[in-house]
Structures are given as structure tokens and as C-alpha cells.
Amino acid sequence: MPETAQHPDPKRWKALIFIALAQLMVVLDATIVNIALPSAQDSLHISEGNKQWVITAYALAFGGLLLFGGRLADLWGRRQTFIIGLLGFAAASAIGGAAVNTGMLLGARALQGAFGALLAPAALSLLAVTFTDPKERAKAFGVFGAIAGGGGAVGLILGGVLTEYMDWRWTFYVNIPFAAAAVAGAILVIREPSDSRNPSKLDIPGVLLATTGLVSLVYAFTRAEEDGWTAGATIGLFITAVVLLAAFVVVEGKVKNPLLPLRVLTERNRAGVYMSLGLAVIGMFGLFLFLTYYLQIVKEYSPVTTGLAFLPMIATMITGSTQIGARLMTRVPPRLLMGPGFLTASVGMALLTQLDTDSSYVGLILPAMLLLGLGMGTAFMPAMSLATHGVQARDAGVASAMVNTSQQVGGAIGTALLNTIAASATTAYLKDHAEGASSAQSLKLNALVDGYTTAITWAVFILLLASAIAFTFVNTGPQSGQPAAASGDGAEDEIPVPVMAH
Predict the structure, then answer these.
(1) Is residue 1 situated within a structural domain?
(2) Is the CA virtual torsion 208, 212, 215, 217 positive or negative?
(3) Residue of 139, 129, 155 lying closest to 23 (CA atoms)
(4) Tens digits of per-residue pLDDT, 94-119?
(5) Residue 1: its pLDDT value, please?
(6) 435, pLDDT greater than 80
(7) Measured between alpha carbons, how far is 346 from 313 in angstroms, rounded to an integer?
(8) pLDDT at 267 exceeding the cut of 50
(9) Cell membrane as a keyword (predicted)?
(10) What confidence tens digit (pLDDT) does each residue in 148-160 have?
(11) d(CA 36, CA 57)
(12) Which pLDDT score, from 0 to 100, does residue 369 have?
């Protein structure tokens, strides 16, 4: 008998543990290598020009292949895709840990990204089709939202500990036990409803256009960071991305079995979620980056201490997600969690615009982190759930992939955009203050901090925009309505009509 909303899977809470473990591994990998990068660069003699490719290779493969991975999960079945993704991710991590030269490391990172693109949508859509009761769904997404938000910071801590006390290679090897545990769990306890697959043919033109379009977009921001926004290569890549993605939308409207059914995007609430989440992630990635630099370069914290300095933010993020978001999600409209959540985070971010070279951790950085974590946790949780709420089960994989795509593209844009802003501000400060400087070292540190605070000021406005989008676009009522519909054909009619919140 297939599990249905009336007969929930008895092992679903155990399944959640393994789904969350896999999600943690993917999110960790976006940041764990950042802290290990200087040691890896030293050990493998990676040139300055190639250094950023260790981060970019992962982001390009992951961001570019997510929609494809989400649709494969709908076609092959989520559990099978989940297991293939885990095994591939573990193998790629083993190659990365054993890397003997730059090429081997970059190849391993691209492979990790490709298997991550299979794994992440499969994990989120398994959650969407396993938890159909609104109250249970709220709890399950609370856990998942906390991991999606806090996993990046956990990566910074784990990266610091492994690099300082063991070896940078362990930032790769650590994935293997994670993956092994999640595969065992998937085989033993994860079940998916038998009627939730989408056996239609794969939309090859859609796959090619979406993948090349997203890769061009992510790469354009990376080039902008290196060559500047007005360089020919940068502009060329942006134009290519726009043309390819526009062609993708046209093709999706015409083919019989689209990679991304436009009905997933055109529903107003989901569009609001994708936009506001993408913007919030731009702000968050910038924050991780600049605070990590600030604590290590200006405050001279060790990698481990830097990681531990982020712990209070993880704690409030988990609190916001599980205690505020999950408890209120079935009672209040999502925009009343997302809007104020992003607003609270922007207040925390605004505090950080006051940073200077001798700012106190306890007096300034800690309160800012607590507010950021609380706001993000509260907002992420209903956003994650709303993105897959009311989607028919056959589209759950691709709707989940869109959440991950908005986060990945947001992360790539955030890193490149805010880094470029910070670098220009630092250069300008050095030029303007070179004459009256008491020492070269203090001038350098002041210039760096001026760059960070300029970029953080932009991040404040980006978070305010995310909050405004959540308030205006997301207009559905509390998420206690229909679970994801499970039937395959003719399910277009089953998309719940959003309830207007009065």
C-alpha cells in the first residue's frame, strides 16, 4: 500500500535525520573549503589566479545543474536520486582529499557540485512528499530550514578545526562518513510515495539552455569580481546568460514535458519566495565572507576561534527556525514571518556598518550576529516550506531545485558583487588617506574595514528589499492547507489557489 496523507510513513521522523544529514553535508561544502583554502593553496602550489576556482568550480557545477538534478529526481524517483547523489558526492570528496595537483582538486570540486545538484533537490523534495500533515510539515521544515541557514556557519567552524588540528585534506574526507551514514539510512528507512514520480520524457533543450544559462550567469559575476563590471568578457557573459535564460523560458512554454513547468514559477507566492530567498542569501554570503576576514585579519583570530565566534548566530538561527518559524507557521501567514524576519536580519546587518579596527566582539559583533541569526532562521523556515507547498508531487523535485538555485545563484552573486564593492572602497580609502597615515599597517587595516563596512551597507539594503518582496508578493494564508497533491496526470487543476490574507 503506498503511503498517502492518510497513511503517513511510520519511519518518517527517522528519515528526516538522514535527509537533514545529507543537506548539512551539501551546505557545509559551500563554506568548509574557504577556511582550508590558504593551506591547500600552499600545499598544492595553486596560483593566485586559480585560487578562486576551488570555490567557483563547485558553485558553477552546483548552480548550473540544479534544475536538471531536480527533474531527474522527479523522473528516477527521489530516493534513488538521493542515494546516487550521496555516493557520487562521497567519491568526489575522496578524490579532492587525495588531490596531488591543482587540476585534480578543481575536478573534484566540480564533481562535488554536480552530485550536490542531484542530492539537494532530492533531499528537499523527499521532505515535501514525506511530510504532508501541516503541523508535522512545520516541524520537519523547521529542522531543515535551520540546517540550510546554519550549515554554512558550521562549515566555517569545522573547516577551522580540521585545518588547524589535522590537515586541509580532512575538509574533504569528512564528507565520507556523513555520506555513508545517509546512504545506510536511505536504504533502511526512507520510503517515497509510489504515486509521486513523473515518468515523462526529459526535456533536453531545456536542460542545455538552463545549464548553460545559469553557468554563464554565475561565471559572469565571478569574472566581474576579477576583471571589473565593464570588461568585455564580463558584459559578454551577462548578455549570453540573458539570451540563454530567455530562450529557456520560451522553450519551457512550448514543450510537452518542460524541465521547469512555468506553473511552478508563475504562482505569485513561490515567485516571492524565490526572489526574497535569493536576495537574502546575497546578504548572508557577503556577511560570512567579510566577518571571517575581519576576525582573522583585523582581529587576528585563529581559524578555530573565528569559527566559534559564529556559534551564537547558529544558535539563534536554530531558535528562530524551530521555535518561532515552526510554531507560528500553521497559525500566521508566511509573509508575517518572512517580512519581519528579513527586517530583523537587516537591523543586525546595519549594526555591523559601525565596525572599525578596534570594535568589540561582545559590544558590537555579538548583538549583530544574534539579530541576524534570529531573523534569518524565522524567515528561512516558512520560505523553504512555502516553496514546495501545494506543488503536485510530480513537480516537487523541480520546485525544490528552484529554492536551491535561488540560493546558489544568490551566493555566487553575493560573493562577487560585495567583494567588488569592498575592494573598490578599500582602494579609494588608500588613495584618499595615504598622506596623513601614521603607519602603513594601520592605514591598511582601516582601508580594509572601510571596504567591509561599505559592502555591508549594501547588504543592509539588499535585506530590506528581500523583506519588502516578502511583504508584497507572499499573500497566502497560514500553511495549514492542502499537502502536496500526489497524482501524476491532470494535476494542473490541483494547484491550491492561494488564500488571500486579510
Answers:
(1) no
(2) negative
(3) 155
(4) 999 999 998 999 999 999 999 998 98
(5) 38
(6) no
(7) 14
(8) yes
(9) yes
(10) 666 777 777 788 8
(11) 16
(12) 92
List Cβ neighbours of 438 (8 Å cut-off, separation of 6 or more).
none
What value does the mean pLDDT of the chain take? 81
**Averaged over 357-376, what is the pLDDT?**
91
Burial category of 121 from C-beta neighbours within 10 Å (exposed 0-12, middle 13-18, buried 19 and up)? buried
Provide mean pLDDT across the span 55-68. 82
Nearest Cα to 147, choosing from 391, 376, 475?
376
Considering the domain boundaries, does residue 82 fall inside one? yes
Separation in Å, CA 393 to CA 131, 196, 386: 12, 5, 14
Mean pLDDT of 132-138: 77
Longest CA pairwise span in the chain (Å): 79
Q: Residue 46 phi/psi, 5° resolution?
A: -80, 130
What distance in Å separates the CA atoms of residue 87 and residue 19, rounded to the nearest whole number? Answer: 14
The x, y and z cell numbers of residue 237, run together, are: 557573459
Classify 62 as helix, strand or coil: helix
Three-class secondary structure of residue 500 per DSSP: coil
Per-residue pLDDT at 166 exceeds 70: yes
Sole residue written with cell 494542473: 492
SS3 state at 193: coil
Domain count along the chain: 2
Residue 502: its pLDDT value, please?
Answer: 27
Please tell me which of 199-208, 238-247, 319-328 the model is most confident about, judged by mean pLDDT.
Answer: 238-247
- C-alpha cell of 45? 602550489
Whose CA is closest to 121, among 156, 73, 88? 73
- Check residue 197 and give its pLDDT: 64
Q: pLDDT tens for residues 282-298?
A: 888 777 778 888 888 88
- Same domain for 424 and 321: yes
Domain holding 246, by residue range, is 203-258
Cα-Cα end-to-end distance for the chain? 41
Same domain, 323 and 237: no
User: By the 8 A CB rule, do 146 and 92 touch?
Assistant: no
Read off the C-alpha cell for 389. Answer: 507547498
* Residue showing cell 520546485: 399
Half-sphere exposure of 101 (CA within 13 A, CB side): 1
Percent pLDDT > 70 in the chain is 90
Other beta carbons less than 10 A from residue 202's beta carbon: 13
493 is a domain residue: no
The alpha helices in 320-362, defined as continuous H runs, are 326-328, 335-351
Q: How far is CA 472 from the centre of its chain?
A: 23
Grid coordinates given for 264: 511552478
Query: For the domain that residue 392 is a member of, what is the CATH number?
Result: 1.20.1250.20
- Inside any domain, residue 452: yes
CA gap 59, 403 in Å, rounded: 15
Residues 119 and 233 in one domain: no
